[in-house]
Design goal:
The chain is α/β, with parallel strands linked by helices. 38% of the residues lie in helices and 19% in strands. Helix 3 crosses helix 4.
Length: 449
């Protein structure tokens, strides 16, 4: 996708050269004849070429934004892959020769069939089981199941499916800062009334004099933690079970801190999420069409621009809302979101099948996040869309979070091991509440069936 976007940027730059040449040709013709005014025909050509140039520039800006988002996503995926590789490196692994495993997915021998055959005295089956036991002990120890010393084949545990987590696309898209080394609250001073400037009435008279007033935004540092107790037998005789559980806890840590940053109400140790932050702006969507949603999005964008005096630069919505918008088209059956490349008069651009950074609408990057609730509104069936300015929404976290601990002494008399993952997290959208506008209303009842 990233390479496709870069190809489209190159094509757009080539188109721009043609439009720029058309504008220059008109100007050069006027200057060559020593004129200062354009003829009616030249004016028409000039206006058309300039309009095309602006349209191409808008397209390039949109593609550049999409390129940056996709490059950021690619970098994050690479970092995640590196982290997974780092965790995997801690699991001992000893390879035995180059010979294929006796029991493998698609192999000619069946582990359970050989287990029963060996009990009936089948010597070849017994030899294969012994070979499998040696292979498994060399690579890792697995659970023994119901067959005594027989070891379950490796390929059965290689296919372990971890718990599904929605992750933290929202937190990853906003401003992330290092958490201060000490303290459980963070104080951020902010202005509540500015000094003033006015035209001096006459010379040697008093100039405007207004004292700036401030208050303090207090942000709580929240602790997110989880634990799992397992037997030492599972740790020592299992296949990377401790690492697997720590990874599972870390995944849920990421999801829960993200959900709290979106919709936390400040209770139960969570954040005040962006949907519940005091003084953030709201805009309504009560329509039933893709056009009405895009219009409401522009309203939300305009509210941020008018109040923050700076541009909003991020739209966050639930995956179901993005899918719904991608399915909408106008009366001429032109899609509102052009998939995989620029289209004619499209409102947005992106990929329908993505998660996280998926494209853009109104020239702003769109991030999908399943952490946005879908049980809001009077009938508890609505989601929300967040329009915000990334620089003004802050998430602070220790760079090592979450920290994984393996505590063996606490339950030593039970041969139990306690695994703990925890981290400290602070979030606020309250530094500039007007930099966010949450889109809400009965329009969010519209979903794909």
């Amino acid at each position: 996708m990233l390479e496709r976007v870069r190809t489209l940027i190159s094509e757009a730059l080539a188109q721009r050269e043609g439009a720029e040449a058309a504008v220059k040709a008109v100007i050069d013709a006027v200057e060559a004849e020593g004129r200062s005014d354009l003829t009616a025909d030249e004016t028409t050509k000039f206006d058309a070429a300039r309009a095309e140039l602006r349209s191409i520039d808008d397209k390039i800006d949109s593609l550049r934004t999409q390129e940056a988002d996709l490059a950021d996503l690619e970098a994050r995926n690479a970092a995640a892959a590196a982290k997974r590789a780092e965790l995997s490196a801690h699991v001992p692994s000893v390879k035995v020769g180059r010979e294929a495993h006796v029991y493998r997915s698609g192999g000619e021998h069946d582990f359970l069939a050989d287990a029963f055959a060996a009990r009936e005295g089948n010597r070849e089956a017994a030899e294969r089981l012994e070979r499998n036991r040696t292979e498994s002990l060399a690579e890792y120890r697995s659970t023994t199941g119901n067959f005594g010393a027989l070891v379950v084949p490796q390929y059965l545990t290689e296919l372990f499916a971890p718990s599904l987590e929605s992750g933290r696309p929202f937190i990853s898209a906003i401003t992330n800062l290092a958490l201060p080394a000490q303290g459980m609250t963070i104080s951020i001073p902010r202005s509540t009334g500015s000094s003033t400037v006015a035209a001096q009435a006459t010379e040697n008279t008093t100039v405007s004099n207004t004292t700036m007033t401030t208050d303090t935004l207090t942000v709580a540092v929240r602790t997110f933690a989880g634990q799992q107790v397992l037997s030492r037998q599972a740790v020592e005789r299992g296949a990377g079970i401790a690492e697997l559980l720590i990874s599972d806890l870390a995944g849920d840590y990421a999801t829960k801190t993200n959900i709290s940053a979106i919709n936390g109400d400040g209770t139960a140790g969570g954040h005040f999420g962006i949907l519940n932050t005091t003084s953030v702006q709201t805009a309504a969507w009560t329509g039933t069409t893709g056009a009405s949603l895009v219009s409401s999005l522009h309203n939300a964008i305009g509210k941020v621009n008018a109040s923050r005096f700076a541009a909003a630069d991020l739209i966050v919505m639930h995956p179901r809302r993005w899918a719904w918008l991608c399915a909408q088209s106008d009366s001429s059956l032109r899609p509102f979101v052009q998939i995989d490349g620029p289209g004619f008069n499209a409102y947005g651009n992106g990929v329908a099948s993505g998660y996280g950074a998926v494209g853009s609408v109104a020239g702003m990057p769109v991030v999908t996040d399943a952490g946005i609730p879908t049980n809001l509104g009077a009938s508890t069936d609505e989601d929300r869309i967040i329009v915000t300015r990334r620089a003004d929404v802050l998430h602070m976290e220790d760079g090592a979070a979450p920290i994984g601990l393996r505590l063996e002494e606490v339950l030593a008399d039970q041969l139990s091991v306690r695994l703990v993952a925890y981290g400290f997290s602070a979030f606020t959208a309250g530094r500039f509440p007007v930099a966010t506008c949450n889109l809400q209303g009965t329009g969010f009842k519209q979903v794909l069936s």
